Write the structure tokens for this entry.
Amino acid sequence: MKVLSCRGVLFDCDGVLVDSDESVASAWGRWARRLGLDVEMVQGLVHGRRSADTVAMLVPRERQAEELARINRYEIEDAGSVRAIGGALALLQSIPAPQWAVVTSGRAELALARLRAAGLPRPAVLVGAEDVSRGKPDPEGYRLAAESLGVPPAEAVVLEDAAVGVHAARAAGVGAVVGVGERAAAGGADVVVADLRPLRWEDGHLWVRGTV
């Protein structure tokens, strides 16, 4: 059992609160095939990155706005298929609303659609792709979320599923990082869990039982 003292908990969305892997694969696969790109290559780039950053890596500048709008539309169309990660609802309900936030590489509209489809509560603080000038692994998003909660980053814990997100959290100076799922196992988190069922919140402490 690991006990993490904190005043705020900062959640990534996809892969941490919601299982959107199939939705992401469907939307980005559809997008990649339309452009004649290698589907597996594209799908391997997207986790933990803003859509705008992925599109900028793959599409000429003059077509980026059009193709970004297209993938944004595809992802919203597929949002209804996502489900909550095990233990997510119970954990969120146990943390006072002013003490947790969501920091996502997706747009706020998409994150809210996925949270709603998964039956999870709307966060009081949500930092989306449009709220930062640089996406993960830049620490801007996590610093902004901690500031919005009124919590020093060193007194916050981050839950992440991707290495770029773990790096962003570290760069933000947070107190600890909990990795969620297999993608986080090689990311350098302090502790890694398969889902959120081994976690519980109690009076300013996040209790973490077991690792993957």
Residues 21-35 form the longest helix (15 residues).
